[in-house]
Amino acid sequence: MDEVVASNQAVWEQASTKHVREYDELLEEARGDGLLLTRELELLAPVLAAEPVVVHLQSGHGLDDIGLIKAGAQRVVGIDYSSVAAGAAQRRARELGMACHYLVAEVPGVPVADACADLVYTGKGALIWMRDLDAWARDIARVLRPGGHLFVYEAHPAVPLWTWDEDEPRIRPDRSYFAESHVNDTFPGNGAREWQWNLGQIVTAITAAGLHLETLEEYAEPFWRPQDNTNAAAWSGRLPNSYALLARR
Ligand SMILES: C[S@@+](CC[C@H](N)C(=O)[O-])C[C@H]1O[C@@H](n2cnc3c(N)ncnc32)[C@H](O)[C@@H]1O
């Protein structure tokens, strides 16, 4: 494994202990509704109606996987390089009787068969940890069966620029939309090096891997708000904070 990726993995092993500490709260959350966002459920509705086999890249605490099963997925294979995250997600899925199976592995280079998935699902803080986006997109194209879909719901690439000032939105003086990477300074990835892929690079990597872009939507609403800072002016509706992308092999 690349040295920077290995150091990021160590940060994630530590950060993922939260999923163990908060196991019971997450289990309770998993029993409820609202695990997936309304818009992602709308965009995924035709795909989920066909009871897809899903591969979830960077599955984290795995609540999305339970949401996908509840919304129609036949089964989900979650892949994450944090053994702590994958272990907690597996325990939770087993306890709830959900058809989710977790693998501890690096993305890209996932240990699943070619053309095994009807849907590759990823996002919510995933792409920024990819060092090589072309390799990521090629791996997705390999894993998808012909006609299968890739779905990404992710923080907008402009987000690293926004300050969390509450009076008005400002651009951080230490960031550039076109920078290659920066060191994350917020929980949970604090101290890890994240890569900045802009929208053009993301779309180009996906289409160059042979996928056909079906939907690309940008949203003002962030997919996640840190608990201690819920009122940043950058989230008030004028700036992009997340996007969804659906592509087909
Ligand atoms: C912000 S979390 C998002 C996870 C998931 N979408 C969720 O909402 O819980 C990012 C996850 O990516 C995993 N991760 C980061 N880089 C990875 C890589 N190169 N290979 C596999 N997993 C990775 C981390 O361990 C972490 O669980």
UniProtKB/TrEMBL annotation:
User: Gene3D superfamilies from the entry?
Assistant: Vaccinia Virus protein VP39
| Domain of life per record | Bacteria
GO MF terms on file? methyltransferase activity
Protein keywords: Methyltransferase, Transferase
The record places domain Methyltransferase at: 56-148
Pfam families, A to Z: Methyltransf_25
Keyword check for Transferase = yes
- InterPro entries on file: Methyltransf_25, SAM-dependent_MTases_sf
Decide whether keyword Methyltransferase is in the record: yes
Return one Gene Ontology term, BP aspect: methylation
Protein name, per record? Class I SAM-dependent methyltransferase
